[in-house]
What we know:
4-stranded antiparallel sheet, globular, disordered N terminus, Rossmann fold, alpha/beta
Amino acid sequence: MSLEPVLDSHVLLRRKVELLAAQQQHLVRLLTLHARGEGPCCYHCGADGMDHEGAFYSPHGDCGIWTCGRCGLSQLRERPLEADVEALEDTNEIYPTDTDRAEDLVAEHGFMIDLVAQHVPEPGRMLEVGCSHGYKLEAARRRGWEVEGVELLPRACAFVREHFGIPVHQGTLDSFIPSGGFDAVVAWHVLEHVPSIQGFLGHVREFLNPGGFLFVQVPSFEVARKLEWDQHPDVFNALHYWFFTKASLGAVLQEQGFRTEQLHIDPHLPFLTAIATLS
Length: 279
């Protein structure tokens, strides 16, 4: 049962236009700061007090990581364009289409639904951003959830629609207009990829029903910075724009109107998980 009536689509569209306008203004301000300054400034808050953490090699060249002295966010200095990201991700073999193993993969992704159920015990409406091949969504649907996905890659979207029959929007949250609010929004290894944290969390804030929860997992920079960077392309690559610590992830969630219920580092993997609701 959904926690709140369906959102008015006209109200949501107006809010989305306002949010996109604010994102554009923020981007113009950052570009202006970059053009004026001799050194890098923060892509999140615009501060110019940046500390160089080091660099790692990728096929695109050396990628430098800088940490903002004001907001604490660590980030890449150089970033590929969205079209380049789509082309690179669409050939990524980390998430292969495996029809023969689909049932096993749905079962494996049931852990996500167990986690969601700890906070939203009654099935309602779930959105997964970056849903890949839809295994989490299908696991949720089999437990009574009404599900919808957002995914950048055309190949993955086609698999979700054809194999599971689940509605999925090909693109980003900027162009997504849902039919109603959601009681759970899942973004598993997505936030490190988004150009604008404010924009992403702003859209989630509009989509999330009162009493609903956001579930986020990202690489943990606290753990990963101790690794050999060039030996871990799954964490250190040109498609990860942001590198989060517990402090910086908690801060951006609070800044964007969320109250963090849980924030912890995986004891076995270099991952950081946050569970938050609207403040």
